[in-house]
Design a protein that fits this description.
single chain; 91 residues; three-stranded antiparallel beta sheet; two-stranded antiparallel ribbon; 5 strands; 44% helix
């Protein structure tokens, strides 16, 4: 599902027009991004948890050439699936 398809689905299910659905989705994405950037988890009970993760600098290997390269420290995010979503996927 693309972002455009998700906007259509939100608009249809929430009885919103496409512009309102896009605005709501953009606000959700911005809020989650801001919280993760601040180092805070985002918990959506039943759906899952977005967890910020700091990766230390280190060495990586270019799989094509085998050359070792330095990897800068970075911040990323992990997603832990909630029970309701897991049951929906497996039920």
């Amino acid at each position: 599902m693309t972002k455009a398809e998700l906007v259509w689905a939100i608009a249809d299910r929430a009885d919103l027009n496409r512009a309102q659905a896009k605005q709501a989705l953009d606000a959700f994405i911005a809020s989650v991004s801001d919280s993760l950037k601040a180092g805070q988890q985002v918990r959506l009970i039943g759906f899952g948890t977005f967890i910020p993760v700091k990766r230390a600098a280190g060495l990586a290997r270019n799989p094509k050439t085998g050359e070792k390269v330095k990897r800068a420290a970075s911040q990323t995010c992990r997603f832990r699936v909630g029970d309701s979503l897991k049951n929906t996927l497996n039920g």
